[in-house]
Amino acid sequence: MRNVLKMILAAVAMLVLARAAPAQAQKPEISEIDAWLVRDPQMSAQFAVADQLGYFKEQGVKVNIRWYISGTDLPSMWGAGNIHLGTATGATIITISASGQPIYAVAPQSDIAGNQQVILGKKGQELMRSPKDLEKLKIGMPKGASMTLAIDHMAKDSGIDFSKMQFVNLSPPDSVTALAKGDIDAMAGWAPWVFTAIKNGGKVYFTGNKSYIPGKEGQVDWLMLHANVVTSGKMLKEHPNTLKAVLRALAKATTAINTNRDATVKIVSREMKIEEGLTKDIMALNAYSMELTPNVYKGVGEFVDFLFGLQRIPHRIAAEDVFYTKLLKEVDPKLVKWEAKTEIK
Predict the structure, then answer these.
(1) Range with lowest mean pLDDT among 117-126, 220-229, 301-310
(2) CA-based angle 234:38:243, to the nearest 5?
(3) In sequence order, which residues have a C-beta less than 8 Å from that of residue 155 and are 6 or more positions away?
(4) CA-closest candidate to residue 172, choices 200, 192, 202, 149
(5) Which of 40, 43, 65 is nearest to 269 (CA)?
(6) Pick from 34, 73, 89: nearest CA to 229
(7) Secondary structure element (H or E) that encloses residue 246, with its range
(8) Which of 209, 225, 271, 314 is most solvent-facing, going by the fewest CB within 10 Å?
(9) Beta-strand (E) ranges in 261-302?
């Protein structure tokens, strides 16, 4: 009888340990991490919501948000080796990876093609009679911006020679100022800056997914662009559970954005320092989802050939190599509709 009791107690103890093991395995390896984020609703809305609603804290991790202005600044910042968590689009990820620096997209956050826009200034509106006239305009845009690919696709569809187009390397805020002064004829950028340009008299010519070109109005697929959660190889190797904790919090924030838009608009507006009505308009153009589909992969892949053709990267890389889908699958298998077989470097 005593031996039977011992066996029962031993079995119970093993069961308790078995149930506790997964919970222990999920415990974040570190309790605090910096996240380098572009301060706009396209790239970082979920981070702002998760932070302000305490979702990161629920997962046992403190995320210190470090804001900066433009995603095109990330490649130079990443090179220092001090950034291990952030957000980025395909163009930025490919640029960093092709330079030999390990970077991995672990989850998408939003489809932001609708917020990537070409805006005609007053002078540009006067000069434009057909898409071909774009070759005559000075277009302000940060070098390496994702919108470059949309312009290339629009050019091919409209019989424009992309090589004849005149680009001026300007940040979005500087483009807004230059457009208002007439120093440039058009700008390519993203919200909230393009909204400011429109307020100053500019006119939308096309976006990543919609054409306003007279006679060619309607939906287009000139840009497949997603904001992705990115991390370093070092972070993946050493702190995978911390990353999974972050992803769980972001998934909860994504649900909050899609089910309680008014409340989350207030949070994003405050954190991004953008007027509430404008924030609502910007967020309406984004599709917030962490579902990793083949289109997310395809969109990144398109940037490889395009950036190589422009000699913005030294060599082609495999788009699959910048994705690491295992963590997202462990967080929620239903979100992973396409899987990468990437090995961490």
Answers:
(1) 301-310
(2) 30
(3) 131, 134, 161, 162, 165
(4) 192
(5) 40
(6) 89
(7) helix 240-259
(8) 314
(9) 287-288
Examine the pLDDT at 102 and tell me if it is beyond 60: yes
- Same topology between domain 31-112+225-335 and domain 114-219: yes
Partners of 190 in the β-ladder: 116
> What is the C-alpha separation between 313 and 316, in angstroms, rounded?
7
Sheet holding 85-88, edge to edge: 62-68, 32-38, 85-88, 226-231, 104-111, 287-288
Look at residue 11 in the predicted model and tell me its pLDDT: 46
Q: Token pair 């000069």 is at which residue?
A: 127
Coil, strand or helix: which one is 341? coil
Q: What is the mean pLDDT of the chain?
A: 91
pLDDT band at 100 (very low <50, low <70, confident <90, very high): very high
| CB-CB neighbours of 31 under 10 Å | 11
Coil vs helix vs strand at 314 = coil
Q: Name residue 231's amino acid.
A: T
Q: Do 89 and 146 meet the contact criterion of CB atoms below 8 Å apart?
A: yes
CB 118 within 8 A of CB 205: yes
Under DSSP, the state recorded for 286 is -
Which two structure tokens, joined as six digits, stand for 120?
């005609």
> Taking the CA of residue 125 as centre, how many other CA atoms within 13 Å lie in the half-sphere pointing to its CB?
14
Instruction: Tell me if the domain spanning 114-219 has CATH number 3.30.1360.40.
Output: no
Provide the 10 A C-beta neighbour count for residue 317.
17
Q: Domain 31-112+225-335 falls in which CATH fold?
A: D-Maltodextrin-Binding Protein; domain 2 (3.40.190)
DSSP assignment letter at 84: -
Can you say whether the dihedral through the CA atoms of 40, 41, 42, 45 is positive or negative?
Answer: positive
Predicted confidence (pLDDT) per residue in 115-147, tens digit? 999 999 999 999 999 999 999 999 999 987 889
The answer to which of 2-16, 57-71, 176-190 has the lowest mean pLDDT is: 2-16
**Rounded distance between C-alpha atoms, residue 48 and residue 42, angstroms:** 11
* pLDDT at 229 exceeding the cut of 70: yes
CA distances from 202 to 140, 179, 230 (A): 13, 8, 34
- 276-284 helix and 41-52 helix, angle to the nearest 10 degrees: 120
